[in-house]
Design brief:
The complex is a heterotrimer of chains A (166), B (318) and C (170).
Chain A (H helix, E strand, L loop, with lengths): L1 H20 L3 H21 L3 H26 L3 H10 L2 H21 L15 H8 L4 H28 L1
Chain B lengths: L4 H30 L15 H11 L10 H18 L18 H23 L2 H32 L4 H6 L11 H14 L11 H4 L9 H26 L10 H22 L5 H32 L1
Helix pairs in contact in B: 1-2, 1-9, 1-10, 2-9, 3-4, 3-9, 4-5, 5-7, 5-11, 7-9, 7-11, 9-10
Chain C lengths: L1 H12 L25 E3 L14 H5 L5 E8 L2 E10 L8 H5 L5 E3 L14 E2 L1 H4 L12 H4 L27
The chains are: A mainly alpha (166), B mainly alpha (318), C alpha+beta (170).
């Protein structure tokens, strides 16, 4: 179990590194999918199979497909990647890199102080997730539904607008 | 749950592949039957070995990768298609005692996840081929499969709510008194249509669309890589049929005959229905496909969920 | 929706209808006598070649698949060679219609596949049959006014004896 968790964590890390180093956008997205799948395995090993399944269905299965879809439409080529290289000046990446390093250091610092419950965590079923979503976190669900509804209305509006112009 | 898990893990893919290969022959014979002709009936008894002959032909064809293609992704795409379909079979309980992980507690979600990943096979094949017909096929596939995945998931919710579990084993045992095909018939119809769209079979085979896109996403594929797409499609049919059997037709349950025979019979009947649809119906236009999906099937499946929830609430209250 | 179900039903019912396929090599289809298939060269009732190498068939042929060369023996014309390239032939039957002596005829046979294309070029030996084909009683040399050995001028069917120019009688 420990070995599997470490392995999938390593794959997650390698995948993430590959994502930011690939030149071809579709390859980067594929590595991102690998990262997400490995993350799902980590979730499953931590006793949350429901979250793992949702991770694969929603992120890997739907969101990333849309990414690939958009990239296919854009038809990126050599000039685009050259232009992108121009954008990557030190002034642009220095700030985020500094913050990320700080976060990394913080993580390393807290690592020895982890709570020592080595017992296998309880299996988190769909029932538990549902009860907590509509129990203590109902406000968050409502806020998310606001967001989705506004997104729906907006896309409907944009779609109608285009239709009339034609 | 299985006496010999390793053996069944090794055997299941082989059986599925053999079944899918056999299905290519079954489909051609049945199409022939419904079109008042014979179909392949020369090789072996009743043409049974036609599938084998086709397989040998595909194996010995030149395995060509176009020079303009993205090599890695081009090779990866059929592998993804095959893998995701074969993985899905892991959670299907063929009988009470067989199947690899029939009572995985998120079994149904696992199947949905694998189907979601299956989209990549088609989309990446279309992109990596670097040819316009393949790309058009890939784009159609992406839009079609994402759209139909939405209410494929929602159509399953009615069954999950009634059975109270995501595990396919529990869902089958919940159907001991009555098959879900009666209370959940709306869900079944929506799932069947979505399943046809997911496996891009006629009448929803727009990603392939021979007469307008060459062969769609696999235009540039040949040899065994094409064969893998081909076999994966038929394995997908078996998968959808097995799911329909498990979720709506009571799985292995039935009188007199042993469970595995009942499962095979029910699955076979659904497969025949798939082939009948191909024999009878013409391909939809793309806007018709999308309109059917978003304007008919999505509201229908949402209504189904609402009605099921209401009935369950009333029953638990009363 | 109901239309779709009706379509499915009708298609399904086709399972119980007769199949129209003819299982060819075992079950031979009926070919009418005037079917236009493999071309042959026939002989007249006496067993001689009918072809007089007039070249009308070669002229009529739209794909130019017929080739022949005239030869002459005792006043009788016959083809020195007669070649039909069946890889070009379209079985239109124009040659048969053009032929003045019923020599070239089309038969109800089409089973002439070959592995090598040159094998489809039929020579005179391959084309000649020993019978008369569709016109058993017709003999060109018996009706034509051309003298051949064994038949002098004026002895043909429907032919009056030749006028003796040296006689004064009307």
């Amino acid at each position: 179990m420990q070995f599997l968790a470490l392995l999938s964590a390593a794959i997650t890390l390698i995948g993430a590194i590959m994502v930011i180093t690939r030149r071809v956008a579709v390859h980067a997205v594929l590595w991102l999918v690998v990262t997400l799948l490995a993350l799902a395995v980590v979730f499953a090993l931590l006793g949350a199979p429901f979250a793992a399944a949702l991770e694969v269905i929603i992120y890997a299965g739907a969101v990333m497909v849309l990414f690939v879809f958009v990239i296919m439409m854009l038809n990126l080529g050599r000039p685009d990647s050259d232009r992108e290289k121009e954008w990557l000046r030190p002034r642009a990446w220095l700030g985020p890199a500094l913050l990320a390093t700080l976060l990394c250091g913080e993580l390393l610092y807290t690592l020895p102080f982890r709570p020592d419950d080595t017992a296998a965590p309880d299996l988190l079923t769909a029932r538990d997730v549902g009860l907590s979503l509509f129990g203590p976190y109902v406000l968050m669900v409502e806020l998310a539904s606001f967001l989705l509804l506004s997104g729906l209305v907006t896309s409907f509006h944009i779609g109608r607008h285009r239709l009339r112009e034609r | 749950m299985t006496p010999l898990p390793l053996l069944s893990i090794l055997l299941t893919p082989l059986i599925i592949l053999a079944l899918a290969t056999l299905l290519t022959w079954v489909e051609r014979r049945l199409l022939g039957l419904w079109q008042d002709r014979y179909g392949p009936n020369r090789v072996g008894p009743g043409g049974l070995f036609q599938a084998v002959a086709d397989g040998i032909k595909l194996l010995f064809k030149q395995d060509w990768i176009p020079p303009f293609a993205d090599r890695g992704v081009f090779v990866l795409a059929p592998v993804i298609g095959m893998m995701t379909v074969l993985m899905s079979f892991a959670v299907i309980p063929v009988t009470a005692l067989s199947g690899i992980a029939g009572n995985l507690n998120v079994g149904l979600l696992f199947v949905l996840a694998m189907m979601g990943l299956g989209v990549y096979a088609v989309v990446l094949a279309g992109w990596a081929s670097n040819s316009k017909y393949a790309l058009l096929g890939g784009m159609r596939a992406a839009a079609q499969m994402i759209s139909y995945e939405v209410f494929m998931g929602i159509s399953l919710l009615g069954v999950v709510m009634t059975a109270g579990s995501f595990s396919l084993y529990d869902i089958v045992t919940a159907q001991t008194r009555m098959w879900f095909v009666i209370p959940q018939c709306v869900g079944l119809i929506v799932f069947l249509l979505a399943g046809i769209a997911e496996t891009h079979r006629l009448p929803f085979d727009l990603p392939e669309g021979e007469n307008e896109l060459g062969a769609g996403f696999h235009t540039e594929y040949s040899g065994m890589k094409f064969g893998m797409f081909f076999i994966a499609e038929y394995a997908g049919i078996v998968l959808i049929s097995a799911l329909v059997t498990t979720l709506w037709l009571g799985g292995w349950q039935g009188p007199v005959l042993p469970g595995i025979v009942w499962f095979a019979l029910k699955t076979g009947a659904v497969v025949v229905l798939f082939i009948l649809l191909r024999a009878a119906l013409p391909r939809l236009r793309y806007d018709q496909l999308m309109a059917l999906g978003w304007k008919v099937l999505l509201p229908l499946s949402l209504l189904n969920v609402t009605a099921t929830g209401t009935v369950l609430m009333l029953r638990s209250a009363g | 929706m109901l239309d779709t179900l009706r379509t499915l039903m009708l298609t399904f019912l086709h399972a119980f209808q007769r199949r129209v396929t003819v299982q060819y090599p075992e079950e031979q289809p009926y070919l009418p006598p005037r079917y236009r298939g493999r071309i042959i060269l026939s002989r007249d009732p006496d067993g001689e070649e009918r072809c007089v190498s007039c070249n009308l068939c070669a002229v009529a042929c739209p794909v130019d698949c017929i080739s022949l060369q005239k030869a002459e023996q005792d006043g009788r014309w016959y083809p020195e060679y007669f070649r039909i390239n069946f890889s070009r032939c379209i079985f239109c039957g124009f040659c048969e219609e053009a032929c003045p002596t019923y020599a070239i005829q089309l038969t109800p046979d089409f089973e002439m596949s070959e592995y090598a294309r040159p094998n489809l070029v039929y020579e005179k030996d391959d084309l000649l049959i020993s019978g008369t084909g569709k016109y058993p009683d017709y003999s060109f040399w018996r009706v034509a006014g051309v003298p051949i050995p064994g038949k002098e001028r004026g002895e043909s069917a429907h032919e009056r004896p030749p006028v003796d120019l040296h006689s004064l009688l009307p």
